[in-house]
Amino acid sequence: MNNFFLNPGRIALYAIGLxxxxxxxxxxxxxxxxxxxxxxxxxxxxxxxxNRIVNTSGTAQATFxxxxxxxxxxxxxxxxxxxxxxxxxxxxxxxxxELIIRLEDKEYExxxxxxxxxxxxxxxxxxxxxxxxxxxxxxxxxxxxKNAEVQATNARYELENATLNLEKMKVVAPFDGVVVxxxxxxxxxxxxxxxxxxxxxxxxxLFMEINLPESAIEHIQMNQxxxxxxxxxxxxxxxxxIGELSPAISSxxxxxxxxxxxxxxxxxxxxxxxxxxxxxxxRSEDAIVIPKNVILSxxxxxxxxxxxxxxxxxxxxxxxxxxxxxxxxxxxxxxxxQLIVRGFETLRENSRVKILR
Length: 357
Description:
This protein is of the alpha+beta class. The protein has three domains: 34-46 and 288-355, Beta Barrel (conserved putative lor/sdh protein from methanococcus maripaludis s2 fold); 53-61 and 202-284, Efflux pump adaptor protein, beta barrel domain (Elongation Factor Tu (Ef-tu), domain 3, Beta Barrel); 67-198, no CATH class. The chain has helices at 3-6, 8-25, 106-112, 114-137, 142-167; strands spanning 37-43, 48-69, 74-78, 93-94, 99-104, 170-172, 177-181, 190-191, 196-213, 225-229, 238-245, 255-263, 274-287, 289-291, 296-298, 301-308, 311-316, 318-322, 326-331, 338-342, 353-355. It has a six-stranded antiparallel beta barrel. It has a four-stranded antiparallel beta sheet with strand order 6-5-3-8, with no helix packed on it. It has a three-stranded mixed beta sheet with strand order 20-1-21, with no helix packed on it. It starts with a helix and ends with a strand.
């Protein structure tokens, strides 16, 4: 007789196993189509706009910028800013023609003899008037009048030249702007000629030199809008325009050069910032626009999922204009469709879903 049937312990284990299998067979079976996948949706409205862009980047530079050097030697005299009452500092605004630094050299100024030249001109002009009056009375010859005119003209030139030489002792702002460099010199320190004195920039208008891909040459035109962004301005986009374009393609880089003009009236950008430029080459209004990341691909087919009566349905789509994050849908989606934007990764056709609110 087999020992199995004589072993009570084995008989008990066998009976328990049969009971377990019987209980399992009685559990209701759940099909895969009965599982509801949680998803998030977006109701589509054809009210969005989207731009086709060409990306570029470059360094923003001030349209007006100048480095001012000393033209003559002299004692250093930094002037007061009339708006603050203290000596000029880095970052101070300056007006065109405003005196920033004066160099003092009494010997040089005396040799110019500015006051005596003023008197010489005054005397020469008086003599010229006198000679003209005498000519009308027949008291002098025309050649004497001409000589008086020559004397007056020479005196005028000598005064103008002396004034120009005296102006060389001044460092003056050539345009409205901001002091961006101001090397330190001690007051009354002797400064030689051709030394850096100050740098002035006006960056209410900036420009950016760019290189554009050869493939974009038929799409880029003068005065096209360019959206300018910088990582320090996450919520601000400045508007620029294409101001210059080169017709030549570089054989090495397969790019062509251009220049973007940027309006910076609020001074949000600073000269030297590395900025991104998006050139708008096409635009679609009142379009159905969806995020790129919800689009799935299979072979040559692009599709998304929409919800109808708590069931996910696949929709094959044809797309149009794209930007970095979004794409225009030309065919396959309609107004008021419930596009699945989260939880679509594991869905199949006719999968049951639960919309999360």
